[in-house]
Write a structure and sequence with these properties.
- The protein contains 13 helices and 12 strands.
- The longest helix has 47 residues.
- Helix 2 packs antiparallel against helix 11 and helix 6 packs antiparallel against helix 7.
- The strands form 5 sheets. Strands 1-10-11-12 form a 4-stranded antiparallel sheet. Strands 2-3 form a two-stranded parallel sheet.
- With 494 residues, the protein is an alpha/beta fold.
- It is 31% helix and 12% strand.
- It binds calcium ion (2 copies).
- The site of one calcium ion has 7 residues, from loops.
- One calcium ion (CA) binds next to loops.
């Protein structure tokens, strides 16, 4: 009898445990679906977002489920969206950038050099060890040996495998005041090759004259477009021979008709005197009040401050500064001859032939690189100071100026707006403008589903790439946007 009673009690206990475990399972399942709803909520917001400019002042960045209608009776989700392009790309950053970045993060020159050498050795394909780096010899000699990647990193967490990257560096250390490297670095950043309207950029080197004309006619005058075409048609005048170096030196061939300012000329000033500073109101306005720069339905956030110059036709300061062009018609008809043609590697080379405000206004519309997207560019609008400092080594004033400008004016709509920076020397400015963007395709989404009073939680973390078909160029109105698709590059549930 006693035995039976014990057995019965034992059975009851088992049944109860099973019941508890199955209800825990149900709670967790429920939390999972709440997290999934959070991911969907974020994707919905990203699909409504205008892709021409991206910053943390947009709705996708300000999602807060606590301010919305509670969607579920016994739980909710928390969701956060982060721009991966606001981080330093571990696979594309150069040695100098990495060194400056690690110096900012760790505050230690020697350690910064070691981290840089080790990371470069880890991702390069050869087995030649840098001074304080490490290759297979080192990793195979560890008590738990493994081989270096000798290729691009697959996630930022891979840093933990690399010599010198201790946990307190990768995850940060509150006591030491070091920020988590993990949150400042990425392997996913990508920026779409579109302008602030969402229209595909035109490659300045390969576009036809008529294409250029159509693409720019609402901003540039006929004479300015002709100047552009002529500049391009002229060979590299006097010795460049169109070599295919990735980046041109600070000096550049003489511009046609003589440059009015000549800031790119050989031996030109490299200091802050190199750039004439803006004197007008605003920083980089749209000349002639040209209308199509505003994205559709993004009321409060126009890419450019457009308050000045209501004049219907571009006629003001631009014309007077541009070089005088003899018989543009003859020139434009001339077929482009590949042999003689100049290869423009940086839009900054156009500075001598276009007024500053015009150059700013067309900056995002042109590109020197083909492809739908560019890897590893850093978004000016979302990069924290530590990431910006990677591009602006030893120039804290410039980092502060950029942060201040975006606080005061909202997101940068154009990289061209950097032309107004007062704290960046000429050579540094060129490198900076080559490495930054104002829009992103890569987003990290983190959603947590919560059931009851934290009875159960579930986390989903994902990195998605937003692919937006370029909008059609519309001459008079804002271009129509096509809904994006999302490609998942990383997905983790726990
Ligand atoms: Ca946007
Ligand atoms: Ca290697």
């Amino acid at each position: 009898m006693v035995l039976l009673a014990l057995l019965a009690a034992g059975l009851a206990l088992t049944v109860r445990n099973e019941h508890q475990s199955s209800s825990a399972h149900i709670n967790r399942l429920q939390a999972r679906f709440y997290a999934y709803a959070g991911i969907q909520r974020a994707l919905y917001e990203l699909s409504r977002d205008h892709p021409g400019t991206d910053g943390y002042d947009e709705p996708w960045a300000l999602l807060d489920s606590r301010r919305e209608e509670p969607p579920f009776s016994d739980g909710y989700y928390l969701v956060r969206v982060v721009d991966e392009s606001g981080k330093l790309n571990l696979n594309t950053a150069g040695a100098e950038e990495l060194r400056a970045f690690f110096r900012t993060v760790t505050g230690d020159d020697g350690l910064a050099q070691e981290l840089t050498d080790s990371l470069l050795d880890w991702r390069d394909t050869d087995s030649e060890q840098r001074t304080v780096g490490a290759e297979a010899d080192y990793y195979l000699s560890l008590s738990d040996p493994y081989r270096p990647r000798n290729g691009p990193l697959i996630t930022a967490a891979e840093l933990l495998l690399i010599k010198g990257f201790e946990r307190e560096i990768v995850y940060g250390d509150r006591r030491l005041g070091t920020p988590p490297l993990f949150e400042l670095a990425t392997v996913f950043s990508q920026s779409p090759n579109i302008d602030e309207r969402g229209v595909a950029r035109l490659n300045i080197n390969s576009a036809g004259a008529e294409e250029l004309r159509q693409h720019l006619s609402d901003v540039l005058t006929e004479a300015e477009i002709n100047a552009l075409i002529r500049f391009r048609e002229q060979g590299p005048g006097g010795g460049g021979q169109g070599t295919s170096q990735p980046r041109p030196p600070a000096s550049s061939p003489p511009s046609p008709g003589g440059s009015p300012t000549g800031p790119l000329g050989g031996g030109g000033p490299l200091g802050t005197g190199g750039l004439p500073r803006p004197t007008g109101p605003g920083w980089g306005g749209v000349p002639g009040g040209s209308p199509p720069l505003g994205p559709p339905q993004m009321g409060p956030q126009l890419p450019f401050p457009t308050r000045q110059r209501p004049g219907p036709q571009p006629s003001g300061p631009g014309m007077s500064e541009g070089p005088q062009l003899p018989e543009p018609q003859q020139q434009e008809q001339r077929p482009s001859s590949g042999a003689q043609r100049r290869t423009i590697r940086s839009l900054l080379e156009l500075e001598p032939i276009l007024p500053r405000d015009k150059l700013v206004a067309i900056w995002e519309r042109l590109t020197t690189r083909n492809g739908e997207a560019q890897d590893g560019l850093i978004n000016l609008n979302t990069a924290p100071p530590a990431v910006l400092s990677a591009l602006l080594a030893d120039n804290e004033a410039a980092v502060e100026e950029i942060v201040r400008l975006r606080q005061e004016n909202g997101s940068f709509a154009s990289v061209g707006q950097l032309l107004t920076l007062s704290s960046v020397p000429r050579d540094q400015l060129q490198r900076l403008m080559d490495r930054v963007c104002t829009k992103t395709a890569s987003f990290r989404l983190k959603a947590i589903g919560v059931v009851g009073n934290f009875r159960a939680t579930y986390t989903i973390e994902a990195v998605v790439r937003r692919q937006v078909p370029p909008a059609q160029e519309a001459p008079t109105d804002a271009p129509a946007m096509v809904p994006p698709t999302f490609v998942v590059h990383y997905w983790r549930e726990r």
